[in-house]
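> Could you send the Purine nucleoside permease prediction when you get a chance?

Sure thing. Input:
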Amino acid sequence: MFSNTPFFTLALAAISPLVASTPTYRRDGSSSKNSSEGLSFEFPLSPKIMLISLFAPEDVWTQSLGLTNNITLPGLSPLFPSIGCNDDASICHMTTGESEINAACSTSAMLLANEFDLTSTYFLIGGIAGINPYMGTTGSVGFARYAVQVALGYEIDARQIPSNWTTGYWLFGSSQPGEPAKTIYGTEVYELNTNLREKVMKYTEGIKLNDTEEAASYRSKYDYSPANQPPHVFKGDVSTSDVYFAGNLLDEAFGNITSLWTNGTGQYALTAEEDNAIFEAMVRAHLAKKMDFSRVVLMRTASDFDRGYGGSDAVTAFQAEQYGFEIAIANIQIAYTPIIEGILNDWESTFSSGISPQDQWLYNADIFHNLVQRKREVKEFDKMIKRAQRGNLRR
Ligand SMILES: *[C@@H]1O[C@H](CO)[C@@H](O)[C@H](O)[C@H]1NC(C)=O
Ligand SMILES: *[C@@H]1O[C@H](CO)[C@@H](O)[C@H](O)[C@H]1NC(C)=O
Ligand SMILES: *[C@@H]1O[C@H](CO)[C@@H](O)[C@H](O)[C@H]1NC(C)=O
Ligand SMILES: *[C@@H]1O[C@H](CO)[C@@H](O)[C@H](O)[C@H]1NC(C)=O
Ligand SMILES: *[C@@H]1O[C@H](CO)[C@@H](O)[C@H](O)[C@H]1NC(C)=O
Ligand SMILES: *[C@@H]1O[C@H](CO)[C@@H](O)[C@H](O)[C@H]1NC(C)=O
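Output:
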């Protein structure tokens, strides 16, 4: 799949004389000393692409792309203390660490570092996720428009919910499930550049996704499509929650919350633990002119179903070996590789100057409309936010 492209020949050539000592730069947060060894870079680095993984297995890049020049910065995860770049620093990679807190802190440390000029960098987030079987299957590759922080709200234990409620989750400031929130924190929903999404998805046309007989056999227990079909590339939105939820009832409840936050335009498809946290760090960095929020791609590959097949017990289904993990990891590399090549090859003609985002950027990237001027269409929504902000002050 990879070795017949010039890009990968180059990348592999770059790592073949395997590095005896890793070229490193280290900014030491505890003293005022920077140290640098074997690095030929001039700071600030301005990579065309910053790949973002969430945990170690998703790092399919450091070895394959030769991202072995380590930039160690204070504020990154202690488990993943450095950002790796290739020899001309055109491609870099970081791992944030799992869940919302790690993702926010690590992303901020990377974005605010003076060692980088990321104002024209494309950020490619690539991680595994749970999948809504009505949107895809294990191994499927989803490209998101929205990320929704679905569990940000009130919760009461399922055994104590009123008899006419469908779930124990309801939104801040509302009085029952199904009502929109009246109190807003600002991290609930982010919308990405869908024109960029179209462009990068084009590069994936014709790719052959990884699959295995074991994964196919497990998914055949579902009696509907696309759950029981081979994996595919699709468009779908991602939920963010520190709680690793599962089962059709919570999935439907959070699907409903996705719909509320996106005014019916979002479709809950994938579930993960980091994306809203990464995006809040990015919106703040954008406001500080450290990056461009219209240059962000969120791709998640499906490692497991968010709910069981017909008649299966929710906990048994959740804990079952679904054989989705390996193919999801493989498909991060398979789907992003032509995109990386495309961005580099078409840099001058297409990407260098940026891809304009859609006109009706519903939330204008974040719910407080920080990034662009308010539009007439969202005036009503603004009023709701104002009321909610007053509500915040009263809490
Ligand atoms: C450089 O980073 C890689 C990937 O995170 C890590 O495995 C390696 O130990 C680091 N090397 C040094 C010298 O810090
Ligand atoms: C270390 O590097 C940072 C970022 O380039 C720079 O702001 C700082 O002045 C450097 N410190 C020293 C002691 O060179
Ligand atoms: C549940 O019943 C209460 C009391 O009758 C009512 O006020 C409320 O609107 C109902 N909620 C739902 C979600 O049906
Ligand atoms: C999927 O990936 C695995 C692990 O890398 C590999 O062994 C297998 O041959 C791949 N399958 C296909 C159909 O490409
Ligand atoms: C989701 O919303 C639909 C439509 O309002 C409702 O019928 C359903 O009960 C909700 N599901 C859950 C689990 O809250
Ligand atoms: C929400 O959707 C409704 C119905 O499609 C539409 O009339 C309204 O303008 C939308 N609101 C926003 C803020 O986009």
